[in-house]
Amino acid sequence: IALRKGAEMNKHKTDGLLSLQVLEGQITFKTNEQTVALSKGQLVTLHKAIEHDVLAIEETIFLLTLTTTL
């Protein structure tokens, strides 16, 4: 997924586990419990049904992996 600087993926949740790895750029990944800044090479994982949003601090490319099993 590619996001331009300032682009936001508004609060949402998934039906499965997710991992998000930043390939280029920097984002802010936020849940109701925590906010983390992620840059190139960093990874975050999240259980299903947890609301979260993403803000691109700069032009960013990230790899999103979702699974509906486990």
What does the model show?
The chain has 70 residues and is mostly beta strands. The chain contains no helices and eight strands. It has a four-stranded antiparallel β-sheet with strand order 1-8-3-6, with no helix packed on it. A four-stranded antiparallel β-sheet has the order 2-7-4-5, with no helix packed on it. The chain is globular and about 35 Å long.
- Report the end-to-end length measured between terminal Cα atoms: 24 Å
Principal-axis shape equals globular
| Biggest sheet architecture | 4 strands, antiparallel
> Helix content range of the residues, please?
under 10%
Give the helix/strand class: mainly beta
Radius of gyration equals: 11 Å
* Average of the residue pLDDT scores: 96
Q: List segments where confidence is low: pLDDT < 50 over at least 5 consecutive residues.
A: none
- Number of strand segments: 8
> What is the string of helix and strand elements?
EEEEEEEE
**Spatial strand arrangement across the major sheet:** 1-8-3-6
Residue fraction in strands: over 45%
Number of helices: 0
Task: Explain briefly what this protein structure is.
By secondary structure, the protein is mainly β. It has strands at 2-3, 8-12, 17-24, 26-31, 35-39, 43-46, 52-56, 60-67. The model has no long low-confidence stretch (mean pLDDT 96).
